[in-house]
Structure formats: C-alpha cells, structure tokens
Specification:
single chain; about 160 residues; alpha+beta; 6-stranded antiparallel β-sheet; 4-stranded antiparallel β-sheet
Length: about 160
C-alpha cells in the first residue's frame, strides 16, 4: 500500500537512490528547473513536493526505508485509491512538459475535465492567477498540487 515519507530537509533524491538500491517501489515527482551558473545554463530536477517521497510497499519495506536515516516521519494514507489517482494525474501532467506552478493549501473551486489536446481526460479545479485560467491538479493527501495554464474552451464542467 501507499505511504507518504516525509524526509529530512533536502533528502528526497538521496532517499530515492537508496530505495532504488533496495528495490523498493516508490514515486518521487521531479520537475526540470533551469538556472544559470557562471554564465552557463544548467538544468536540474527538483522534487515537486518538497520533503515527500511516496513509497509503495509492505511493512518490511517500510522498515527498510526507516533504516536509511533520511526519514523524518512516515504518514499513513487512509484513501489509497484517491492518492493513487492523484499521483497518476501528477505523473501525466509532468509528462506533458508544460510549465507547472506548485500550488499549496488548496481552496475549493470548480471541478473540470480537459476535453481536447495533450492533457485530454485530466481532471482538476479551475483557478485564476494574474487574470489567466489555470488547471489545478491536486494531491489531496498533501493539500498541495500543481497548476498549468489552460484555455477555458478546452474545459468541460464535471458538476
């Protein structure tokens, strides 16, 4: 089953490397981040949700994750299906290579589905930022999510 590992500060990728070595299934959503260092463009990959790695395993794998000394705490997930669905949507949104914005402490809004384009079928909430419409895809367990710019004509209401 799914568990949310809250890591020690800035230990998400190191935790993921240790889980790979131990062959423990997990999901760490990463997004590309471009920066400049000494006049050169550098692309790195940063965790989408700071401090979180999602482990999919049993009690034995949970204990193995704890022995990495990178875990602050492990949060149990009550609604397994909802977390799985939320993480799948985040995965597909990252896969589109659209520029994403991290959204924290979600506010309720209108639920919609994308009816055309590369993100067709994805569901989320419409938000407005600086006068532009955005589709917010939430990971409800964390009360966080990501948003992407979207045109209103591509959306259909779910309610």
């Amino acid at each position: 089953h799914w568990m949310a590992i809250y890591t020690k500060a800035r230990q998400e990728k190191a935790m993921a490397r240790q889980l790979v070595k131990r062959e423990i299934p997990f999901y760490l959503p990463l997004v590309a981040k471009d920066s400049s260092s000494r006049g050169r463009r550098v692309r790195s990959f940063a965790p989408l949700f700071n401090g979180y790695v999602f482990l999919f395993g049993n009690e034995e794998e949970r204990v193995a994750a704890l022995t990495t000394n990178r875990v602050s705490r492990i949060l149990p997930v009550e609604d397994q299906q909802q977390l799985r669905q939320d993480l799948m949507q985040v995965y597909h949104l990252i896969d589109t290579d659209a520029p994403l914005t991290i959204e924290r402490r979600l506010m309720p809004g209108r639920r919609v589905r994308i009816k055309a384009g590369a993100m067709m079928g994805m569901e989320g909430t419409v938000t407005s930022r600086r006068g532009a419409s955005r589709l917010l895809v939430a990971v409800n367990f964390l009360q966080q999510g990501v948003s992407v710019a979207i045109d209103d004509y591509m959306l259909e209401p779910l309610d």
